[in-house]
Amino acid sequence: MIEIIFGDNLTELKKLADQSVDLIYIDPPFNTGKVQKRTAMKTTRDENGSRIGFQGHHYVNEKIGSKSYQDSFGDFYAFLQPRIEEAYRILKNNGSFYFHIDYREVHYCKVLIDEIFGRDSFLNEIIWAYDYGARTTKKWPPKHDNILFYAKDPNHYTFNTDDMDRIPYMAPGLVGKEKSERGKLPTDTWWHTIVPTNSKEKTGYPTQKPLGILRRIIRASSNPGDTVLDFFAGSGTTGAACAELGRNCILMDNNPEAIQVMKERLKTAI
Ligand SMILES: C[S@@+](CC[C@H](N)C(=O)[O-])C[C@H]1O[C@@H](n2cnc3c(N)ncnc32)[C@H](O)[C@@H]1O
């Protein structure tokens, strides 16, 4: 079953039960945060603070300026933190969390997520490498996104190596026919095209991610019949992959356009 929910994800996440989903993937929108820039906040752990967060720790929220890069990150951090705390609460104890983000923000986000999940829960930084668009001549042209992978319990989580899509050997002649036909397991570096402009997959939603990336995550980190949550769902790529792979899916977005695109894209599944 695929469920599409319209609304602010913080409000909607609070309605979901503790430990009720098996896998969470999110691709939050950095940079759309111009509105949030007005209220840049810094959250610091302080046992005298009035805000209570994960595991009952106290925090203080401090308003800071909004001009510098650090400050605009402070905004994003304050936006993300309560949502990731909700994700942690909703995730089953053997569940996994994938966080898709831009290379400029990933380091700050990792520190934030480590605080909520614990550093031991961090398993991989996946590099999704693509080759598209203009190339700057001023520095190495950035052509990748980062996906942080966490397991709520790093000693007990779903990871289906037997059900992964396999990739070709670079030198198939060196490994023999059987191995080369079977291919090898993917690593933490994934080469995959962006959604091609003229493809059937393209919905027209600006930040749409490729189905191939979501299929790989869902096959590896969930089982048929499991429930997957994407609370920054956009065009519903996570839902489309879940529908193909026999997983249930909860999709949230606060943009009516995204809801419309998802309803059209997933009309045979909802
Ligand atoms: C980068 S896009 C996700 C794209 C998606 N992965 C795909 O493949 O289409 C981020 C989405 O988060 C949504 N969003 C931003 N803030 C939100 C909020 N507070 N609650 C729910 N959705 C939100 C935006 O409307 C946008 O569709």
TrEMBL record:
GO terms for molecular function: DNA binding; N-methyltransferase activity. Residues 21-263 form the DNA methylase N-4/N-6 domain. Belongs to the N(4)/N(6)-methyltransferase family. Its EC number is 2.1.1.-. The keyword ATP-binding does not apply. It is an enzyme of class 2 (transferase). This is Methyltransferase. It holds the Pfam family N6_N4_Mtase.
